[in-house]
Amino acid sequence: xxxxxxxxxSALNGYKETFDGxxxxxxxxxxxxxxxxxxxxxxxxxKAVENNYGVTVPQPGKANxxxxxxxxxxxxxPDQMFAIFDHAKPDAVDVVAEKLKDTGYYTLxxxxxxxLRISGPKCLDAxxxxxxxxxSPAAFPVGSVARTSMEHMGVIVYPEDADSxxxxxxxxxxxxxxxxxxxxxxxxx
Length: 189
Description:
Blueprint: E1 16-18, E2 23-26, E3 30-36, H1 42-53, E4 63-65, E5 71-77, E6 80-86, H2 92-100, E7 105-108, E8 113-119, H3 123-128, E9 146-150, E10 153-161, E11 164-170, H4 174-188
């Protein structure tokens, strides 16, 4: 009997392209873990995040980077945040649960999302064409996160610095999302 080996593929097959003043890269090892706060468990989760990651639980619309720079917590709504970090294996929930124990409810979201990093001096010009929110550093500084839409697709966006943003959208529409971002980049060059 033949033996088969399954090989994981990213939603956009490792897309990477550099344009004039803009780089666009798929984040192929992006781990996304949803963390929900148990009723009455706010203090326990807050202490666990502070003790194990050296950062506070973010309010909705805010993002906090762990003390060691490896994990970003996105405040998605009251009592829910996402932990975002580089991790290629399908055990990202175990990584979070090992640190936070039973202080939260964890759900693996990684395969539901596709991540893109857009960076460079012209990246904001490209994003302005498809984003209904003001992503300028004055209005949307590092430490911000938003759920919005770009070309009628749901997107989570946060800045890494003034010239770099991470865009996270549904993996089911990854090709359409990539096309929208690339088209916008080409329109500003």
